[in-house]
Design brief:
The chain is of the alpha/beta class. It contains 10 helices and 11 strands. It has 2 domains: 84 residues, Leucine Dehydrogenase, chain A, domain 1 (Rossmann fold, 3-Layer(aba) Sandwich), CATH 3.40.50.10860; 123 residues, NAD(P)-binding Rossmann-like Domain (Rossmann fold, 3-Layer(aba) Sandwich), CATH 3.40.50.720.
Length: 276
């Protein structure tokens, strides 16, 4: 069993991003909008700002209080769309429940949608066209590539069907010629599928959902879950019982997590290149 080191792969990717920025020779900006006082979101935004500084991307933070009105947020997005120095825009989710997240996100210029959540980018992904792929699924592929894990012809199971992780990673694996099965909350006997695959991606948001008896020998396990319990982070996979049966496995923390922010940086540089 080998542990996939997301921090190591992320660091190597960031060095490549620095070189791309140098060769681009242009100021590249990323706008991040944060609404409200969600502590986890504040940490994520701070991490993104630090990551931008590390590679040389100009960070444009826009902080709104809990009671900010929808129109002021939308007007800020429109201004960022028109700013030639800003090539990427993201709205930190979740937004306060009173706000219409889908409506607000729809105002982001699709070509600056570095989260890859827009209908435009998702549609291009579905069609197999070059696009800004949502960050976590893109990071998963980077990890598989970094460890030379073959995908073509393999049986892959994705547990979870969210628009942010489950559906995009299923499409990406399909593009890599894997045979893909998606399990979800209505799937009966999930273990029947997870026991008989080569690559298992788990993104359900439930601590220890996948246990050792649900995994076959020599499976590659990618744990996307981040569950905070009593101040500690846990994945969707019960690492202690699953790891001994794996060929490769991502830990939590230190696996997929570091790749998500790095792929955001990568998408921002790609959007800048596309603009020129």
């Amino acid at each position: 069993m080998e542990i996939i080191d997301g921090k190591k792969v992320s660091a190597a990717c960031r060095e490549e991003i620095k070189q791309e920025l140098t060769s681009l020779g242009k100021k590249v900006g990323l706008a991040v909008l944060l609404v409200g006082n969600d502590k986890a979101s504040e940490i994520y935004v701070r991490n993104k700002e630090n990551a931008c500084k590390e590679v040389g991307i100009q960070s444009y933070p826009f902080i709104f209080d809990e009671n900010a009105d929808e129109q002021s947020i939308i007007q800020t997005i429109i201004a960022c769309n028109q700013n030639p120095d800003i090539y990427g825009i993201l709205v930190q989710l979740p937004l306060p429940e009173r706000l219409d997240a889908a409506k607000i996100l729809s105002y982001i210029d699709p070509k600056k949608d570095v989260d890859g959540f827009s209908r435009y980018q998702m549609g291009k992904l579905l069609l197999g066209e070059d696009c800004l792929v949502s960050c976590t699924p893109q990071g998963i592929l980077q990890l598989l590539d970094a460890y030379h894990i073959p995908v073509a012809g393999k049986k892959a199971v994705v547990v979870g069907r969210s628009n942010i992780v489950g559906k995009p990673i299923a499409l990406l694996l399909l593009q890599r010629n894997a045979t893909v099965t998606v399990c979800h909350s209505k799937t009966e006997n999930v273990a029947e599928y997870t026991k008989n695959c080569d690559i298992l991606v788990v993104a359900v948001g439930k601590k220890g959902f996948i246990t050792g008896d649900m995994v076959g020998e020599n499976t590659v396990v990618i744990d996307v879950g981040i569950n905070r319990v009593d101040g500690k982070l846990f994945g969707d996979v019960d690492f202690d019982t699953v790891a001994p049966k794996c060929s490769y496995i991502t830990p939590v923390p230190g696996g997929v997590g570091p790749m998500t922010v790095t792929m955001l940086l990568k998408n921002t540089v790609k959007a800048a290149k596309n603009a020129h």
